[in-house]
Amino acid sequence: MLDTAALNQLLNQPQKIVITTHHKPDGDALGSSLGLYNYLIQQGHHAKVIAPTDYPEFLAWMPGNEEVLIYTEQTEQAASLVAGADIIFCLDFNNLSRINQMGELVRQSSAVKVMIDHHLEPEDFDDYRYWNINACATAQLVYTFIATELNRPDLINADVATCLYTGIMTDSASFRLPNTTSAVHRIVADLIDAGAVNWRIHELVYNNSSEMRLRFLGHCLANKLEVLPEYNTAIITVTHEELKKYEVITGDTEGIVNYALSITGIRLAGFFVERPDRVKLSLRSKGEFPANDICKRYFNGGGHRNAAGGHSDAGLQETVQKFKDILPEYKTLLIQ
Length: 336
Prior knowledge:
- The chain is of the alpha/beta class.
- The chain has helices at residues 4-11, 27-40, 75-84, 102-108, 138-149, 158-171, 182-193, 198-206, 211-223, 240-245, 256-261, 291-298, 316-326, 331-335; strands spanning 16-21, 46-51, 69-70, 87-91, 112-117, 128-131, 225-228, 233-238, 268-274, 279-285, 302-303, 307-312.
- α5 (138-149) packs antiparallel against α6 (158-171), α6 (158-171) runs antiparallel to α7 (182-193) and α6 crosses α8.
- The mean pLDDT is 96.
């Protein structure tokens, strides 16, 4: 395993660097990637962010976004960059399966692989690991990596700060989750001082919806919300036909599960979406309830205690019924 001194020495001279993150990047994935990108280009590195798939339009405004390659759309160019890289930064994921077809390309690359992440149970593919499961966001770790490990807080300019603020804001649910500590708030204050315009970032991410996205949200809340009071649980289910009817695009389903969790007394919320090849689910919970345990044990997934995801190869109704059948096992935790 590479140590910090060796990595610092490696970064002292311009390198060919690829930065990648998990498929369907969210605010933390893209924010941490572009934050690191905007830092590296100041030092003359030849850096490129490669996203395995597309991502929401409400994230496409961040500084450096125009330089992002999408692997599924620019496969040949992206594969060439991975093959020729000196260093590959892997952000906000710790298992190569999370970057789809890019996984084997990264595994086979001779580049130094640097993982910066906050998820459980990392795969051992990396040469250098900056990892902390208690961090509220990978963007928080990128900040401390730059400011503390590399000792270059002076290079956290407005572009870097804007991207990292976005990552922390989104992954902490707008600074509401328990791991949004006083240390996180001090980092956020530093980012604002460095040029992140907090109110504008919030507007661009949260108040930037299409009309169809709002109509889809209304449909989910009015017609698809089911409350299971005996388990302090609420679920929302969406069929493939409904996705087509409301012209749902990448990012339109993000955050809907949190509305179910916002109901008074609810401790666990689930969002089930029927895709062409499988059913995807997102779970959110409050307090000590382990949403990630359900996803890991029953739905081929995992994640954080209060935010997890998974999938099922069964149909939508079968998957939802399986979830309901599991709830008695967790009843003591749900009703306490």
